[in-house]
Structure formats: C-alpha cells, structure tokens
Amino acid sequence: MSASFAIVGSGPSGMYSADALLKKFPDCTVDVFDKIPMPFGLIRYGVAPDHFKTKNTARQFDRTLSLDNVRYLGNVEIGRDLSVEELKDNYDAVVYAIGAYNDRELGIPGEDLAGVTGACAFVGWYNGHPDYADVEPMLDGGATAVIGIGNVALDVCRVLVKTRAEMRDSDISAHALDIIQDMPIEAVHMFGRRGPVEAGFTPKELGEIRDLERCAVIVDADQIPDEVEGDLEGREKGIKEKNLKTLRELAAQDKPEKPVKMHFQFYASPVEIFGTDRVEGIRLERTEVIDGRAVATGETFDVPCCSVVTAIGYYADPPEGLPLDGATIDNVYGRVRDNIYVVGWAKRGSSGTIPTNGPDSRSVVDLLTQDLHKEGVELGKPGGSAIDKMLAERNVRVVTHDDVGTIRAAETANAVDGHPWEKFIHIDDMIAALD
Ligand SMILES: Cc1cc2nc3c(=O)[nH]c(=O)nc-3n(C[C@H](O)[C@H](O)[C@H](O)COP(=O)(O)OP(=O)(O)OC[C@H]3O[C@@H](n4cnc5c(N)ncnc54)[C@H](O)[C@@H]3O)c2cc1C
C-alpha cells in the first residue's frame, strides 16, 4: 500500500521534507499546502530583494512540485480551510513546516506607537507579501532606528539606503520602492544590545555595505575589540574575525560627504520609544557585555527618529490543535504527536539559512520513516481524494502548480525598470490572473 503525506508550508523546510519523503517512499503521494497562493515561503517573501540570485534555490523546489506524485495546494490555510485533525485523519503522516515568522516584541513603553514596525511586516511589505500590503512604515521624518544586529536588520538598513539604481536588479515591490526612494532619508541607526563579536550578521552581508552609492557607514572604532575573545573556535571564530576586520575597515574609512549615514551602535539597549501620536525618538541604555550577556550600566541617551523597525527574533504561530512551546511547536526531535511532525523554523526556532533546513528536514523524515515501519502501523489513508472533496464543498480556490506558473508569467509580464518581475501584492489579483 502506498503512503500519503501532507506537508503544511512550502518554504525550504517543507520542500526539503518533500524531497526526503520521495526518496524514502518512492510510490507515495505528497500534497504540499500553503496559505499563500505562491510557494516557497521566505525565499519569496523574506530573502532581501537585492539578493535575487539567492531566490534561484527555489528552482529545485519547482522541479519537485512538478513531479507526478506531488501536488501543490496553494491558498489553503490549515486552521482556516482545513483543520489539524482533518489532515491527521486523512494522511498517513503530516509534516508541519509553517516557519516561525512572527515578530517578538521588545516589551518597552511606546512599542505600540505608529511608526514601530516588526521586521516580518517591514520585510514582507517591501517583498510584496499579501499579509503586509497595507503596512505604513512612516519613513517621512529623516531617520529610522533598526533594532537588532543580525542579517535581517542589515537587510533592512541596506534596502532603506540603496538608491533606485542600486535596486534595479532586485525584485522589490514597486509600491515600497517608491515610498523608500521618495522619503527624505538622512540616517539609519542600527542598535545592538551586545557587541560586534555577539552580532549575528555574516561577513558577506557586512561586506555589502562598504561601498554604497549615497550612504556612508559610521562605526565607532572604540567599540570594535582587537580580537575575538572567549570560547569560540573554528569556523564560528573565523566568521567573527572577518566581521571585526570589516568593521575596523569601515571605522577607518574616509567618510566622503554622502548624504545618508548608516550608524552602527553596539552596546545600546532600547528602553523606551517616545512620541505623542507617533514615533519621535528612541531612548537607549548603554550596556557592557559580561560572560556574553548584556548588562545595563544606567547611562541612557536619546536618538530622534520617525520610525523604528525591530528585528530581534521570531516565533511560530501554529493552527489550533498544535502545542506551542515558547517560540516553536512543542516537539521531540521533530515528533509532535500521533502521525504529526514538525520541521524547519517551526521546529528549531528562527535561525539558520535556507540550506540549514536540508539536514534538519531529512533527520525528521528518518524518524517518521522508522515510525511508519514499526510493526502494526497500517498505511493507506485516503490522502488527497478526501481532502479535495472538503475543499470543493468549502469553496476554496486551490492554486495548483500550473496556476503558479500562470501567476509568475503575469508577474514577469508586469515587470518594469529592469526588475525581473512585479509581484502581485493582493491575493485577489493573483486569483484574477487565473480566472
Ligand atoms: C528576512 C529574512 C531574510 C532571509 N534571508 C536569507 C538569505 O538571504 N539566505 C538564506 O539562506 N536564508 C535566509 N533567511 C533564512 C531562511 O529564509 C529560513 O532558513 C527558511 O525560510 C526557513 O524555512 P521554513 O520552511 O522553516 O519557513 P518559511 O520559509 O517561513 O516557510 C513557511 C511556509 O509555511 C506557510 N504557512 C504558515 N502557516 C501556514 C498554515 N497555517 N497553513 C498553510 N501554510 C502555512 C507560509 O506561508 C510559508 O510559505 C532569511 C530569513 C528572513 C526572516
């Protein structure tokens, strides 16, 4: 009897899981669900628009979705169109690959002021994610504060300061590009509670801000240690050393009179965002790092700004019926309960690159395979045939892999100004391109 599998989420972890299942069970059927019509999660909606080549990873996943025993069911949200129990009852195993892309909060006064935006919403907005089409980042006052010192924070800073010409090869959404380019930007401040050694950004991303057309990077040389101290070794230590070298070079750079400044401020922890109706500034407290932890010194300072973007980590938001444990779905090595598994950011939290999800998904599929091969386990649940009936009765407009090709062709035809495509930012427009 061939096995039937459901994968919820078509981001990297879901797609690596599909590949692994097909290897273990060559005769199986795999249904990949996504709440968004267009597949591949953060490859489409997270990866920075000026890192367009990174998005080519998705080509291998397209090949998987075009196999005869794999189906893509986009525009189907588990928890809204189908329940966790309905999937569990109709597939031999269900793999949740729903990511963890909801912003953690700072937990400080003023966080609810207009002009404070989480990185998910902000990045989603400039990447054309339908959930964030209506975000108003309020960039009209000259300076933006970005909280966080990882690659996402760096992406946000870079996209804010690049010129239209520098964004030409990108797939940034036109509505966001127009707003960013029209705003009177003078400064972007990137704040980190800890120091350069603890920063999460990587050398390649840091190197990209060396030579920006209209923006000078300001780094305080006194904040850059001479060497990487502590327990770090090997590759990790090498990455930190490269970061320190680049930061030292940036600190020493002649600052030509470029109109925009990107300020790196380490050892600064936000304590309050202030303003009457909207953000007018941010108050920070100086810290020192002791045993890897930021310790407050009591000394505060204010920085005027019109908007704040937080990029301090993310949590999963699973549909009803799946237990949350902190920021992830509660699991043991990827097992959740019964025939339910979890992979990717929803399993291990929001860290790691696209390829990191490959070994993670394969390890969970190994466990799943052992479970299904145990004595007494019977395969042969109906899979897609039962689910298709439910979706039809509920009038859900399922977007197939062929439909994805049609939407993509329309997006490519809509491209302007040298961009590879212009994404539809509303689901209705994607469906209209089909119907
Ligand atoms: C802003 C940003 C930039 C990044 N840039 C890079 C980069 O340049 N290079 C790199 O290697 N890595 C990058 N990463 C990391 C990389 O994106 C992640 O490692 C990877 O996307 C995690 O994969 P995932 O499948 O777990 O989650 P996701 O990619 O988030 O996929 C989850 C999918 O599940 C779907 N979903 C969620 N809930 C439901 C539901 N209830 N029903 C149906 N579908 C659902 C979502 O729509 C989504 O498609 C970046 C991450 C971020 C946040």
What proportion of the residues is helical, as a percent range?
25-40%
- pLDDT < 50 runs, ≥5 residues: none
How many runs of DSSP E, i.e. beta strands? Answer: 19
Cofactors, ions, other ligands: flavin-adenine dinucleotide
CATH class label of the largest domain? Alpha Beta
CATH topology of the largest domain: Rossmann fold
Beta content: 15-25%
- Overall CATH architecture of the largest domain: 3-Layer(aba) Sandwich
| Global morphology | globular
Mean model confidence by pLDDT: 96
Please give the alpha-carbon distance between the first and last residues: 37 Å
Radius of gyration: 23 Å
Strands across the major sheet, in which order?
A: 3-2-1-4-19-18
Describe the 3D structure.
The structure is a single chain. The chain is an alpha/beta fold. It has two domains: 4-101 and 315-434, Rossmann fold, CATH 3.40.50.720; 105-312, FAD/NAD(P)-binding domain, CATH 3.50.50.60. Helix content is 31%, strand content 21%. The protein is built from 14 helices and 19 strands. The strands form five sheets. A six-stranded mixed sheet has the order 3-2-1-4-19-18, sandwiched between helices. Strands 6-14-7-8-10-9 form a six-stranded parallel sheet. A three-stranded antiparallel sheet has the order 11-12-13, with no helix packed on it. A hairpin with a 2-residue loop joins strand 16 and strand 17. Helix 1 packs across helix 11 (357-372) and helix 13 (401-413) crosses helix 14 (427-434). It is globular and about 70 Å long. Residues 8-14, 33-36, 41-42, 46-47, 51, 54, 77-79, 97-99, 101, 123, 152, 155, 319, 344-346, 352-354, 356-357 line the site of flavin-adenine dinucleotide. The site of flavin-adenine dinucleotide has 36 residues, from helix 1, strand 2, helix 2, helix 6 and helix 10.
